[in-house]
Amino acid sequence: MSLRSSVLLLSPLTLSLALVLAGCDRQTPDKAQPPSATQSAPSDTKDDTKSFNGTLDIASRGAAMPDFKFSDPAGQSLSSAELKGKPVLINLWATWCGPCVLEMPMLDGLAEKFRGRVTVLTISQDSGNAEKVARFFAEKQFRHLKPWLDPSNDLGFHYNTGLLPTTVLYDAAGKEVWRMVGAHDWSSARTDAMLADTLAK
Fold it and tell me: Does the predicted model carry a pTM greater than 0.90?
């Protein structure tokens, strides 16, 4: 095999490995998801900073918040139109995504720290698994997060990052500020700096 052929074969493999390391594959069908042992992560592993390898993306800065409506397992609904007037942090996650699960307690803490200044929404991409999401929230007993559902993955397809977790910050006017693709330490000083300008307005 020639050197050029070897490079061509190696490049897709390298790209695939990079995507796996960066986060969870949002578009993987439920039946083809990796084994749960590779996806789950206990919430008390906050100090495992190797998992916080997300990338800050500002390419869509200024884009309007999409028009969407989602609900929780109890049937309560919420629309994007109701969110304007205050900064919003939208986090797309799934129960089968280890880095997502690792982030959740930190997002709950972030919602408490900036209560009244930014709305933190965690929106599950667990297709057709409302009961699983409800059980997860009942077990973790988050104080400030609600189990919002996006069963058709409409937001995931809209943001089109191909990875979970994906987190997007909108300002009070409903304009995108940045998005974090992959896991991030939401309890860090860097987070405070990333939010400072938006929350100061």
Answer: no
